[in-house]
Amino acid sequence: MDFETLLVSTIDDYNNGGLENEEFVKKAHEIYNSYANYSCSLPRTQYPYLLGVMFAGFAKYYKGNIDYYTSIMENALYCFAKCMKVSDSLSERQCAAMRLLLLIDDNDWVMKGIAHKFFEKRCQELYGSPLIVQQILANGMDPWTLETDILVNIGNYCIEQSDAESVHSCISSTEMDNFKKLKKMGKYNVRFPLVQVSPKQVFELFFDFILEYVSTPYERRVTMLRYGW
Which of 48, 86, 144, 207 could form a disulfide with 79 if both were Cys (CB 3.0 to 4.6 A apart)? Predict the structure, then answer.
């Protein structure tokens, strides 16, 4: 079967049993491993939305292994963010924004770890001051304050780019309801941001950061995941 057919089939399997469906897990390993190499071809994919859906569903299979979990999450984040930036379909861009928000919210602890790396790498651009200065300031804050602020800004941009009142064929009614609940709760409202740039700029910097991670042959990113061993 061709790659697009494989992707659609894999997502169908996920919708019929999730991580309990062995066919989904088997195919998800195959697809993940096709990008676990250097140079990674993920940035050149023609199917960012479908891959984002697949990786988002697959990530928690490895919730007990932070390296694998993080790598799969990076793939999902990159795919949805790329779709938001380049898709010719308005509906697909909106659905990618909603799915990106749901992904961030549903994977809190690994997202805080990714946000921490982002903070360290892009501190000057985010805060207008060197990393050492922000680290000193962070010592007087509650744990994860800066990381949470970053994720709120990204989530806020996702909400801004979506249109939750429209009917979308690319997202289920359950996912739409979950998105609307998050929006209504105001969890991703930007009230007193710590970053010195707009939510859109935070998103753009985050996209560049994730692209760099996806494109760099870190050992955890080029490791094949073995299913059934």
Answer: 48
Tens-place pLDDT, residues 15-45:
999 999 999 999 999 999 999 999 999 999 9
What is the rounded distance in angstroms from the CA atom of residue 229 to the CA atom of residue 221? 19
Q: How confident is the model at residue 168 (pLDDT cuts 50, 70, 90)?
A: low
Give residue 166's pLDDT band: very low, low, confident or very high (50, 70, 90).
low
DSSP characters over 115-179 = HHHHHHHHHHHHHSS-HHHHHHHHTTS-TTHHHHHHHHHHHHHHHHH--TTS--TTS-HHHHHHH
Q: In angstroms, rounded to a whole number, what is the distance separating the alpha carbons of residues 150 and 133?
A: 17
How far apart are the C-alpha atoms of 101 and 86, rounded to whole Å?
18
Closest CA to 199 of 146, 157, 170, 160: 157
